[in-house]
Amino acid sequence: MNKTAIIYSFNTRKTGQIAESIKEAFNDDQVELVNAEEINEELFMSYDQIIMGVSTWFDGELPNYWDEFVPALEEMDLSGKKIALFGLGDQKGYPENFLDGAGIMAGILEQRGATLVGFTSTEGYEFESSRALRGNQFIGLAIDYENQGSQNTERITAWVDQLKTSF
Fold first, then answer.
1. Mind listing the pLDDT tens digit for each residue in 1-12?
2. How many domains are contained in the chain?
3. CB 134 within 8 A of CB 101
4. Mean pLDDT over residues 97-102, rounded?
């Protein structure tokens, strides 16, 4: 049976709420919540599928708990790993770097051979630029809790349905 990890910082309220909603949408006992602040190489590689929650901090940076794991990621061979990302950002407050954290993480994962799954349309979002773009799609699920929170459930459900066929 395939094991899926949803990795995010347990100290983040909004990212944690989205992670819990994603787990519920899967409705699968094989989906586990994993604290990003306690992740190590062995645990990361033990999962068949990985979903990573990556917020954008400040002016387009990775949160420090992910920064701490990046050196390990940069040494890993992720060939054959399917990884989905969900990012939180504020497209009105920070329109010039909406979801940049997820975009930075996507670049690191792709360089190490991971296959990203779960791309979503940019339709319905208003921002200036984002490192999380591949063509006219985001590299994963884009969540704007502050400005579009009413759309979270619908977006999560559609994304998880997509992941169920991608993983």
1. 689 999 999 999
2. 1
3. no
4. 96
pTM of the predicted model over 0.85? yes
pLDDT at 59: 83
More confident residue, 10 or 67: 10
C-alpha separations of 132 from 20, 105, 136, 161 in Å: 22, 9, 10, 21
Q: Which residues contact 38 (CB under 8 A, 6 or more apart)?
A: none
- Taking the CA of residue 79 as centre, how many other CA atoms within 13 Å lie in the half-sphere pointing to its CB? 1
Which range marks the domain in which residue 108 is found?
4-166
Question: Which pair of tokens denotes residue 42?
Answer: 């062995």
E strands, the chain, where? 4-8, 31-35, 49-55, 82-88, 115-117, 120-121, 133-134, 137-138, 140-143
pLDDT digits (tens, 9 = 90+) for 103-117: 999 999 999 999 999
We report the CATH number of the domain holding residue 68 as: 3.40.50.360
pLDDT at residue number 135: 92
Q: In what order do the strands lie in the sheet with 120-121?
A: 120-121, 137-138, 133-134
Strands 4-8 and 31-35: parallel
Query: What is the radius of gyration, based on Cα positions, of the chain?
Result: 14
